[in-house]
Amino acid sequence: xxxxxxxxxxxxxxxxxxxxxxxxxxxxxxxxxxxxxxxxxxxxxxxxxxxxxxxxxxxxxxxxxxxxxxxxxxxxxxxxxxxxxxxxxxxxxxxxxxxxxxxxxxxxxxxxxxxxxxxxxxxxxxxxxxxxxxxxxxxxxxxxxxxxxxxxxxxxxxxxxxxxxxxxxxxxxxxxxxxxxxxxxxxxxxxxxxxxxxxxxxxxxxxxxxxxxxxxxxxxxxxxxxxxxxxxxxxxxxxxxxxxxxxxxxxxxxxxxxxxxxxxxxxxxxxxxxxxxxxxxxxxxxxxxxxxxxxxxxxxxxxxxxxxxxxxxxxxxxxxxxxxxxxxxxxxxxxxxxxxxxxxxxxxxxxxxxxxxxxxxxxxxxxxxxxxxxxxxxxxxxxxxxxxxxxxxxxxxxxxxxxxxx
Length: 406
What we know:
Layout: H1 4-14, E1 26-30, H2 33-43, E2 51-54, H3 56-64, E3 72-76, H4 82-90, E4 98-103, H5 108-117, E5 122-125, H6 130-141, E6 154-160, H7 167-180, E7 185-189, H8 197-200, H9 208-214, H10 223-227, E8 229-232, E9 235-238, H11 254-265, E10 268-272, H12 279-287, E11 290-295, H13 299-309, E12 321-326, H14 336-343, E13 349-351, H15 355-364, H16 371-383
Helix pairs in contact: 2-6, 3-4, 7-16
């Protein structure tokens, strides 16, 4: 059995997919000295120097807004409504984190809601004792608990109805917005040859994305740190800049393997995925949890948007879709009423025509700061239920197809 000094190495050897090399092994936030003593006594055999802090889950939320998420996070929800608090916590911890919950209500329905509904690994009602800690938490700390049902981050695709409608600008704005709300966010540029995300963010594309698609078996624990470029706090971009004459031969299972690894590392994956014949783009669109279609107020753009919103997802299922009208007040453009009449559907978010502001932002590699642009991007984020700030539909959580944790 590994001792405290060797436990981190044991975890490193057991984990697969995205695993942060700088991730702490375990961290606890409790509300009382009694709970702290029970945790230290119960886990001393494996974590003799485990860090335990006061303040309960509120302190955990504050800490995890800026810290690297540990492999195991123990939080105390005593004295609070646990479901909203855990919903807030899920927005700031990495999906791979194993969350263990201490509470006060000994209620079977609450236990199922926290573990099966929200996806926390375990819930133990107080009063906490050393034996309860060893019985319910030790296996998770030792890395010997059963593999949980896979959850992970959400994949959102942003697709332009036609070229030049501003889909990349919307994707970048959405990724930055989600990062500003403290979610670990990746912007994935699916165009390996002509992608512009790295250029627009004033960084360089790498070869990590190509490597992942050509040889998915090489996706290892440090791919996120090596291949994805950090462009803001909690925002990374993964892109490529392949030669125009090159042909990238993708492995059949590459996209699914890459997404599985990315979803373990990031709360949100925003994919700038154009609609074209590239199998990688097509599979991203088919795998999306939510699609965003960007159009301009022109007749060809509306026609192509109408074709895109009718496309089924994987297995013929309907994928939630958000319609974004970009450059809404451009000269000679169609009116909103005309567009909605043609689409027979409402426009969900509107971004006005801001040629100078957007051009300056792209040239400088900086975020567009016009209030009308940021409010439009916030409206786009608000359409995606998984990323609505501070809102968790607890009544429907047992029917959700995904979990907040893991």
